[in-house]
């Protein structure tokens, strides 16, 4: 999932004062940090690179700066533009934010879209015929917040102490939530339309937070909310995921008071389309789940505000076109940008305001502070095409916070088995550099997959690393030559049962790669990859 809850300002009827979804703790702003929400801020008014901010201020964060829906449905991949997605793009993620691992059978390739946004003002959301008009409201429930509505994730005693969290039977709330999900599944498109219609009709000030063209990604926010709620019992994974989402949503200008309206519209949409099973207990379960989810995100954002900006400006300093559709883009952030090898970030260009996409860092942290990304331009890829074909040195982009859990565990000396497909080689290269910098002579086996020889755009770099480090082995797997998919090629080597596995590439490669690695004896807990498109949280 890419980005859950980040919507609407409270207008007095969503519970913002003392209603159901009111956060139990209001975040404390960092000293000197004022949240600016003036509408209309754009990258056209970029401040000079390397300009120093004063105090702890995260810089101007406006309601028009990002798309809250984009953080939840997009995979942490080297890129997600409707393009080839490789793990290393929010929930996903996400990512990272510790990314929520997806079961291989639940990973699906992203749908391509040919729609291109325009620079014209955002058009009003199409409202279903039965959507309440501006003067009408979803009935506000009359009861007070259910007991325990603000109970933090993971604080309830397990039903069976002898079982691991993964093996615990579902809680009553989880059962009701999953029953609701099954009920609305056949009409998911209608639920999505109704949810956004409620949100934009009742809270029109939220519309500028989303891109002008909603069709390609409008379901991401709702999908993320529903998926997180459905897995409310999976505290160990869900908390990390939600904390990363909360931190990542700062770049959109999201504030604590935005959450109640989203919860109200969520309840409104679900109660309408799950009316056959909707009752007081079901509603109370959803209220508890959403209140808990939003509180985790709010707390994480408040803590992050004390130590990091909401986003960074970065100037393009190098643009290396490796193939007609692949470029290595190197940027210089305006402030120190701490991250770990194997992580990724979200990126916005000045040509497509409010459209954020995720890209993996293509190197370990450098002493000069520069960051590199491998970008493949694909049809209908707004951001990827801009970065490959329009960006030049001197252009300024924006970066979200680093995120992702596909990092090296330096407390062990296990070998690393790395599978990188296409631009998914970017985070794999970063992992190799990270191992080298730590001085450990750990065996690292890299399988670099591509469709054709021309797609091995970074093979020379990988071979130079192999020459410099005797513990590194690099094997190129070209599909059209070997007639063999990258994951299957791994079977011919090994054994791998003492290795930690890392995968980065298109969703299909990740799915088949996880299956292959499990089948040859690598346990799931030693297989690392960041979430991909259409992520579903693992139980």
TrEMBL record:
Bias kind Acidic residues: ranges: 81-98
Sequence ranges assigned to domain Globin in this UniProt record: 162-302
Record keyword Metal-binding present: yes
UniProt cofactor(s): FAD; heme b
Domain FAD-binding FR-type: 309-409
Organism for this UniProt entry: Streptomyces doebereineriae
Classification via PANTHER family: NADH OXIDOREDUCTASE HCR, PROTEIN RFBI
Cited InterPro entries: Cbr1-like_FAD-bd_dom, FAD-bd_FR_type, Flavoprot_Pyr_Nucl_cyt_Rdtase, FNR_nucleotide-bd, Globin, Globin-like_sf, Globin/Proto, MRET
Substrates-to-products reaction catalysed: 2 nitric oxide + NADPH + 2 O2 = 2 nitrate + NADP(+) + H(+); 2 nitric oxide + NADH + 2 O2 = 2 nitrate + NAD(+) + H(+)
Protein name (record): nitric oxide dioxygenase
Keywords: 2Fe-2S, Iron, Iron-sulfur, Metal-binding, NAD, NADP
SUPFAM superfamilies: Ferredoxin reductase-like, C-terminal NADP-linked domain, Globin-like, Riboflavin synthase domain-like
Extent of Polar residues compositional bias: 1-11, 23-39, 53-64, 147-158
Family assignment from sequence similarity: In the C-terminal section; belongs to the flavoprotein pyridine nucleotide cytochrome reductase family.
Biased composition (Low complexity): 110-126
EC number assigned by the record: 1.14.12.17
Start and end residues of each stretch annotated as Disordered: 1-173
